[in-house]
Structures are given as structure tokens and as C-alpha cells.
Amino acid sequence: MPSSPSDPPPYSASEDPTTLATPPACIADFCLIPLGTATASVAREVAAVQRLLGKSGLSYQMHSAGTTVEGSWDDVMRAIGQCHALLHQNGVVRIQSDIRVGSRTDKTQRFRDKVEAVEKLLEGGE
């Protein structure tokens, strides 16, 4: 909603918002949660996902509660979808996912840059 009557709407009436391009880059943190597996351990599923991401050409980093991946919006979302498809192919019938994704237009930032910025502050005692 425009903030005042003189402000333009977020897109013009003649523009079709379904034709907007996706952001050129994003950083996503995701966790796939396989449901109904034979054991409480999901190490095999995590390993399969990591192998797939290793072949994706995207930058990624596994951590204790999921994986951070960066690239174009379309490539990142495709990779997460392929992770779902792989686990389904491997016999997991139901998967829930938590996905947090960010994009910015003011500068290029990689996920390692964000961590290094905080580490630098910690080193300086701030």
C-alpha cells in the first residue's frame, strides 16, 4: 500500500507482477526433515543431500542444524527441490523443510562474509 496518495504503487497498474524476475542472488539456510524413517538417525539422508549439493556447483556449508547454500534464487530453489526429490527417490515418503532465505540489492554478500564480520568484532572485543 502506498504511504501517501502521491506515492506510486509498488508496481504500475500496467505491469504484470507475475513477470517480475527473481533476485539474482540469495543465501538460503535450509533443513530437510524426513518423517517416518526407520530410525531416529538421518545421517544417511544428510549425506545424500550433501553429495547432491557437491555436484550442484553452488557454494554450501553444512552445519549441525542444516545447510547454508548460496547462488542465484532459481538455482538455490532448484537444488533444494532436488534434495526433496532425491530423498523421495530413496524411499522417504514425507519431508518437511524449514527454509530461511535472504537477498539484498545494495551489495554482493556471501555467507562467509557474514560470519567473518561477526568474528572480526569478537576478535576486537566489541
UniProtKB/TrEMBL annotation:
Protein name: YkoF-like protein
Highest taxon, organism lineage: Eukaryota
Thiamine-binding protein domain location: 28-119
Family: Belongs to the UPF0045 family.
Signal peptide segment: none
A family per Pfam: Thiamine_BP
One GO cellular component, as annotated: cytosol
